[in-house]
Structures are given as C-alpha cells and as structure tokens.
UniProtKB/TrEMBL annotation:
<comment type="similarity">
    <text>Belongs to the peptidase C1 family.</text>
</comment>
<keyword id="KW-0788">Thiol protease</keyword>
<protein>
    <recommendedName>
        <fullName>Bleomycin hydrolase</fullName>
        <ecNumber>3.4.22.40</ecNumber>
    </recommendedName>
</protein>
<dbReference type="GO" id="GO:0070005">
    <property type="term" value="F:cysteine-type aminopeptidase activity"/>
</dbReference>
<dbReference type="GO" id="GO:0006508">
    <property type="term" value="P:proteolysis"/>
</dbReference>
<dbReference type="GO" id="GO:0043418">
    <property type="term" value="P:homocysteine catabolic process"/>
</dbReference>
<feature type="active site">
    <location>
        <position position="75"/>
    </location>
</feature>
<feature type="active site">
    <location>
        <position position="375"/>
    </location>
</feature>
<dbReference type="InterPro" id="IPR038765">
    <property type="entry name" value="Papain-like_cys_pep_sf"/>
</dbReference>
<dbReference type="InterPro" id="IPR004134">
    <property type="entry name" value="Peptidase_C1B"/>
</dbReference>
<feature type="active site">
    <location>
        <position position="397"/>
    </location>
</feature>
<dbReference type="GO" id="GO:0009636">
    <property type="term" value="P:response to toxic substance"/>
</dbReference>
<dbReference type="Pfam" id="PF03051">
    <property type="entry name" value="Peptidase_C1_2"/>
</dbReference>
<dbReference type="GO" id="GO:0005737">
    <property type="term" value="C:cytoplasm"/>
</dbReference>
<keyword id="KW-0645">Protease</keyword>
<keyword id="KW-0963">Cytoplasm</keyword>
<keyword id="KW-0378">Hydrolase</keyword>
Amino acid sequence: MMVTSGVLSPEVLRELCSKFYADSRNVLAQNVCTKVDPLDACLSRKTLENTQHAFTHKVESEGKPITNQKNSGRCWIFATLNVIRIPFMKNHNLDEFEFSQTYLFFWDKIERCNYFLQNIVKTAERGESIEGRLVSFLLNDPVCDGGQWDMIVNLINRYGLVPKTCFPESFSSESSGRMNGLLKSKLRDYAKVLRDLVAHGASTEKIEAQIVEQMTVIFRIVGICLGIPSETITWDYYDKTKTFNSIGPITPVEFYTKYVKPYYNVDDKVCLVTDPRPSNPYGKAYTVDCLGNVVGGRPTLYNNQPPDLLMKLCAESIKQNEAVWFGCDVSKRFASKQGIQDLNAHDFKLMFGTDVQVVLNKADRLLYGQSTMTHAMTFTAVSTDSDGKVKNFRVENSWGDDHGQKGYNILTAEWFLEFVFEAVVDQKFVPADVLAVFNQDPIVLPAWDPMGNLAR
C-alpha cells in the first residue's frame, strides 16, 4: 500500500514518542510544565537576581496613581496621558492625577467609525473587490481599540483633554469587547449599503447623507455604552497644600490649550520607527494605506531610523526630564508578573531543548509574522554605564500596580534593539537630517503591513 508523502504515519509517531522518552530531561520538563505555567517554569533565577530597579537618570517625578487599562486595547491612550500628566502634575502642584482616558476613547470610537465608512466608499470608488484582500482586511476588524501616535495627536488637537473626574470610566471602556461587537456588526451592515450606493452611481451628496444617518446610530451606541462628554467642564481639586482650586466652566480644547499645552505640546513631538526589513530602507518616510482615525486629520507617518538612534534619543529625552512614549512587541522575553523585559528572562533552551522568539532576526520576525508592535508604554528612567552606554530603561505600564515593581517594568538595552519599534520624543532632540525625512512624500505600505498593527 502506497503511503502518501508527508503523512504522519503510526511508525513516524512511534519514533517521535520514543525519541522524547529517551531523554530523561524531557520527562522532568514534562512533569514541571504540566503542573505550572511553562513561561514561569522557564524563568531565569539568575536574571531575577541581577535585576534591580535603580537608575542613573530618572525624570524628576513620576505620575501617580499607576493606571490600569483593564480589559481594553487603550494602551496607546494610556501611555500618552501618562507622559503628559508628569509635567502637568508638577506645574499644578498635584500629588495624584489622571487625564480621562475614556474621553479620548469616546471620540476615537466616533471618529474611527466615520473613518472606516469613508474608507469603504473610497475603496469601492477605486474598484476594490469585496472579496479582495484590502476590503476583506478592512471588514475583518472595522473598529479596534488600538492606535498610533499621530492618531492621538488628532484627537487631542480636535477635542482637547479633561481630568478623569470629569469623564470617568464605564463598563465598556474597561471591557470594550461587547461594545466593539455591536459597532462591528453595524459597520459591516453599513458597508454593504455604501458599496451598493457606489455601484449604482449614487451622488456624493447622497452617499454623505447616508453616512450621516449611519453615524447617528453609531453615536447612539457609543454614547449609551460610554456616556457622552459635556461641551464644558468644571474641575474642582485640591493641590499638595490642600488648597481648594476650581477651573471652569471651560471647554476641553480650552483646558488643553491653556492648562496643558504650555507644558506638553503634542505638536512638538515626533514619532520615529525602526523597521529593518530590506524593502524599507532607513531614512525614508512611510505611511500605511487606510490607516487613521480622523477624516481631515494628520496622516499616520513613519520616519524609519536605526534602533540605536531611537535608543539614544530616548535616553537623551529622559536625561532632559522628559518621559517617552514608545511601542513594542511586549509579549516576547517578558516576565509579566516580575516586570522584566530581558532577552535572558526565560531559558527556553534549557526547558524545551530549543530556543524561541529570537531565532530569526528582527527583519525576518516581521516578515514571518513572529513579531510586531502590540503595546505602548512609557519610559521614565534610564541607566548608563561609565562610558554613557545605555544598560536599561524603567517602564511605566498601564496594567495596574500588581504587575512588575508596583506597575513598573525594567527593559534592557538588548531587548530594546530587538523588540522596540517606535518612540516619540521632542523634535528638539532630533538631528536636522532626521527631521527632514518628515518632509518626504511617504511610501505607502499596504493596509495589512505589520507596521500598522499597534492601531489594530
């Protein structure tokens, strides 16, 4: 009887099993990993002993309390507001403070849904098939929680900021899955309506009127789930001296412009990325097709630079007392409970007889789907050696104070080079030739390119 090539025959399976039990280390590893989390079992004791949360340079003060995005994908919003609140708290003499993450989340949902509907019309008008890769990609996740730096700038410039007490959390901001499910269902319904209108030659006016009707329903769903921000706020608070203060009534845009922007102007910050794929040379500007959140807002731009430059600028920013927003592939070589982002955090080879996660180089990990941006956080401190070489960073996360050292991670320079993909620093720290890249006409990457993953 002929055996089909590639079939795992009983003989092959018996050989695999025999090889497994021939090595007693496999049996020991099996006994351990069937009882505990395999990652915990691989955790390196020596790395734990050598990890200390002490840094040569640290921002003057860190934000309090530690924030918690809970069961949502709002890390990019939390990381941004964690950076902004540091100078705000200092200049307003506050012990603790949070900006409202839900406020920006609300407006991002509204704007993101409109952005999706407009993209559906644009792709239909340029003849993209409903079964083609682009439209299928857009329909797969019409409204996610993630986002990029340029997208948060769009929201802050258009809608301003408010203290968290003026627009607190809701069930659906802390656990966004149910609300997102409702929105995705309606957006797919509306996508068919809009594509049919385009196919039948409907006028621009008729299509726009239809989108306004659709957005009426979208606004209703989001408003019911998150609440609707007021046009003006009044913020009552005590400062460190226990003195009562009151600001308002004031619009959120006025609040940002008058009380936040003098200390942290989002338009002064630039986002640099590091994408080492051979197809995407350093020193070039890139964007991603159909990626954004605000129609008429600034596009999502990537200024591609080597990772050592990003690390140098992050360190310089911290030395100048400015925290740094950054995006990374958080799940790799990360001891979450202990808050250690270190290539030596786990010894997979000792446990499984093979290495994982860093076998391919950074470029190949992007190409083969092994690595991508998944999470945004904040650098607040850096350690350097006697020659000024970066050793590690202190990271403020947004997963609550029961992770890491009361909410903070430690991230090594080696980990940075492998798994950090972007960072936001003030343009005053950036060399002129690097800033000039932003003036280029960006190369357009496809909508599904991994460099857009943090916004999905």
